[in-house]
Amino acid sequence: MTIDLRSDTVTxxxxxxxxxxxxxxxxxxxxxxxxTVNKLERRVADLxxxxxxxxxxxxxxxxxxxxxxxxxxxxxxxxxxxxxxVRAELGAAAAVSGVTTRTWSAPRGRLDALKVARxxxxxxxxxxxxxxxxxxxxxxxxxxxxxxxxxxxxxxxxLTREAGVALHLDGARLxxxxxxSGTPLADYGRLFDTVSVCLSKGLGAPVGxxxxxxxxxxxxxxxxxxxxxxxxxxxxxxxxxxxYALDHHVARLVDDHARARRIAxxxxxxxxxxxxxxxxxxxxxxxxxxxxxQVVARCREDGVLLGLLDPTHARLVTHLxxxxxxxxxxxxxxxxxxxx
Length: 340
Ligand SMILES: *Cc1c(COP(=O)(O)O)cnc(C)c1O
Hints:
The chain is α/β, with parallel strands linked by helices. It is built from 14 helices and twelve strands.
């Protein structure tokens, strides 16, 4: 059987999750009448300590609604050069919202708040682009599942507040950061004007993300969601999967993290240059190789699917649908692929 470690998006809903979906009471969510969606939105807003929330079909839409609320056309958003919002959302901030982006480089995606603050130019006047917002990613996906140090997030909040610059969190994997660091979700939430979280990554729901923010902000986000074609009807059937995931799939993320460390440990024992186990903080392992495409191809021949980040880096992600046996098998295959 194939062991799919390309991403934590590949999970299929479990029988119990499907049962919860089938049993969900539903209504027309465009009229605000879907009780299950309303319950999910309230729950996620409360978890993150925000006033309101809106359910979206994807994390990209949740991020882009957040950016749209915080940055006006012609203004800029700052983010790191490997951020999902700038690399993996197909230029949406520019194409949809007229937002320009300026980036900082961040080894492993790690935030350096002072470096970011030095780039900010709020109220830049008539000749330069004004900075309206900064976007941070936690955990950092292409950085290899990096958990942002909480003190850096706090410092960035202080510096942006002083400057009148807004702060968005791409928290697609904030659940992983929360479980790995022990930092309460509300402590993350209170530092940001808007936060997006994904239900379909490590949490294992088939679809869905949530954006949280102020009552006024989320009301505006609902208008833009509909305008972009994201107004959904009896969507409680999907929100129910999210509620089920919040009940059953958050605490277990520690297992995914332990399994990622286990793979990194086995690989590093054979090839110390390929991975630093100490850098594996959550469920993502980045493997370095002179020919990463070949490593990916060899693993595929032996039934293990990895992702290719760039010519010298492959990525594997542990998730709900891989257990200890699959992880041991994948480690063996990976060591073999690096050896040949
Ligand atoms: C997956 C992901 C998203 C959202 O992706 P969608 O495929 O649009 O749901 C956003 N940010 C990060 C960091 C992600 O990993």
